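User: Good morning. I'm curious how S-adenosylmethionine would be positioned relative to this chain. Could you predict the structure with it bound?
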Amino acid sequence: MANLGIPQNTIEILQKYQFRFQKKFGQNFLIDTHVLDKIIDSAGITKEDCVLEIGPGIGTMTQYLAENAREVVAVEIDKALIPILEETLSAYDNVTVINDDILKVDVNRIVEEKNAGKPIKVVANLPYYITTPIIMGLFENHVPIESITIMVQKEVADRMQVGPGTKDYGALSLAVQYYAKPEIVANVPPNCFMPRPNVGSAVIRLTRHDKPPVLVRDEAFLFRLIRASFNQRRKTLINGLSNAGIAGVTKESVGTALEEMGLSQTIRGEALTLEQFAMLSDRLFKNKAQTL
Ligand code: SAM
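Assistant: Good morning! Here's the predicted structure, ligand included:
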């Protein structure tokens, strides 16, 4: 089968099947062989690997993955793409296509069935409208993952990488950095896609930590606090958290915890590091336990 990274081959297959792009599925297909090589290279794909691809589209990156990995599982929501994938991937016997919504698929089961529960690699040119739920879903469901190498909106890649005190810093930065080491490996302009997106894109690799950089009594409680702290970004941490309706979290308890940590009573969430959120979480969790 012809290499779909070459624009003419993509155009031919789209015309043959009279494919109509669906905006609601965030369909922007890659048409640049350098970018495809870069993704495979950055993900460090070898013949030992089992790879999950989210949203294969017409199978462009899937072809590259099938050539380089032992096994590929590709989950595509758009059923109009399934007959196309049957043709474009017909040369490979190491690819399984699943026609489903990635947010509804039991990825842990796929890992169990295809890789005996051992960590897989995730590679995707993500539909931008659901980038955050996809990444958070993989992490929070504790799917055995070695790394996630994904194309996302440039701005989202920046948000994953930054530290406190910048405008992009927020709940996504903290969540990603709790689970993984993020590294932007390429910036990708709109002309590498068909159709062209309105935004710049970047490939980011998230390498899973063996264990989180901070240890907390209760991970779910830490993330409730983080989300609440950035829900009302402009408020002080004391006001934002005490309004969030979390048991044991009051103006007084947050004030005391901040004082014990040597932080200002007027500090905002965007100034706290992951380590400081972890400390705050453990102090407030202790209060929560006492109020129940
Ligand atoms: N991987 C292809 C490429 O690089 O050319 C296509 C990438 S395109 C940005 C995103 C793909 O994800 C589309 O094929 C779209 O139909 C699919 N998609 C969108 N939402 C999805 C979902 N919830 N679950 C699975 N696939 C989805």
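The chain has a mean pLDDT of 95. Residues 222 and 277 are 7 Å apart (CA to CA).
Let me know if you'd like a different ligand tried.
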